[in-house]
Amino acid sequence: MALFASALDKCLNVDDFRSLAKKRLPRMVFDYLDGGAGDEKTVSRNREAFDDFFLLPKVLRDVEDIDLSTKVMGQNIHLPLILAPTGLTRLFHYQGERLVASAAARAGTIYSLSTLSSTSIEDISEASSGPKWFQIYVWRDRGIVREFIRRSRDAGYQALCLTVDANIPGNRERDIRHGMTVPPSPSFKSALEMLSHPGWVYRYLTSPPFEMANVATSPEATAKGDQTLMDYVSSQFAKSVTWDDAAWMIEQWDGPFAIKGIMCAEDARSAVDVGASAIVLSNHGGRQLDRLPSTIEMLPEIVDAVAGRAEIIIDSGIRRGTDIIQAVALGATACMIGRPYLYALAAGGERGVDRLMTIMRAELERDMALLGCKSVSDLNSDFIRIKS
Q: What is the CATH number of the domain that holds 104?
């Protein structure tokens, strides 16, 4: 334990958590977390594009007390960083979503639970008193959608987040090579590799059965355990989703509602027109369609299109406090992270996620002070320049 604690304490940034997670997870599990679609060009671009912007500090400003707080869809949070919905989180730590939701509550921010989570809507509600959103898809059977909306409302979730860029699975070749299924059914080669991670194997075998908990506890939805995740999504999620479907869901929920997966101005305007409270500018972390632009380089266009009629949240590629500052200065309300907290969870469980959030907060406070900006609400385009 002392060696493990020392390794976690040496994690100073997201890349450090990623390196430790890679050591702790079987290859097929790490690649499911780490990989993207196709040649993974979008995964790389999400990070590289932050280098296209400079921060421009202002000096001799009073930065004694830095205020990182903001409000997202009516919810006050302590920093402009939300934990995004991620599926099958118990793959990366046997207690999965429960630990992440608890860590988010301690950090004073929002946790978004995935439809494809390995812990149910109700169990997360019991595990965390912090603010929570439920991420939903449009299923072929609207009865399933109604049921998930009802369960989310009954469990006290504050908002819904409709993901619109995953009606067809992305071409994630790492998963195909390993035979990634739900529950995991490794190839012979992957099974042999798993033996070099006995801790993960022990926890997997001695923990409750691995399942898509929200589906397993739903009287409306069923899943075949021998299907791959890709096949399952393909067979159950509607490919004929339109803006009318989004408008219907917004009406059914009748509360704060975000649409996640927007990547162009036309869709941003349509999202506002159907009544979305917020837009999540996202390319799914590069896991769906490859060769997309990064979200940070599309942000100014989306801000112009929305024109203040809805809040804008940005994900995909956020790794540093300076990334968050750049995004907010360009017009985002807040940012989302997915892979970073999963790396931290795999590296050190709940303590790992706590440490990641502490690091992100410390980076934000330090960088805001060095920038000469006292409050997140004061960030604007005066603090940023685009490289020529």
A: 3.20.20.70
CA distance 67 to 325: 13
| Phi, psi values for residue 329, rounded to 5° | -65, -30
CB contact at 8 A, 260 and 282:
yes
Q: How far apart are alpha carbons 70 and 63 in whole angstroms?
A: 17
Omega cis (within 30) before 183: yes
pTM above 0.85, yes or no: yes
How many Å apart are CA 307 and CA 224, to the nearest integer? 44
Distance in Å from the first CA to the final CA of the chain? 50
Query: What gap in Å lies between CA 157 and CA 111, rounded to an integer?
Result: 10
Residue 327 CA to residue 80 CA, distance in Å, equals 10
Residue numbers of the domain that contains 148: 2-386
Query: How many helices and strands in the chain, by DSSP H and E?
Result: 17, 12
pLDDT, tens only, 227-283 = 555 566 667 777 787 999 999 999 999 999 999 999 999 999 999 999 999 999 999
Whose CA is closest to 158, among 212, 104, 119, 237?
Answer: 104
Distance between CA 269 and CA 140 in Å, rounded?
Answer: 25
- What Rg do the C-alpha atoms of the chain give, in angstroms? 20
Concerning whether 93 is annotated as a catalytic residue, the answer is no
Q: Tell me: pLDDT of 1 over 50.
A: no
Q: Which residue has the tokens 């780490």?
A: 34
Strand blocks (E) in the chain: 53-55, 70-72, 75-77, 81-83, 111-113, 132-136, 159-163, 257-262, 278-281, 311-314, 334-337, 384-386
Residue closest to 288 by CA, chosen among 331, 327, 333, 338: 338
What is the per-residue pLDDT across 314-329, written as a single tens digit (0 to 9) for each?
A: 999 999 999 999 999 9
Number of domains the chain contains: 1
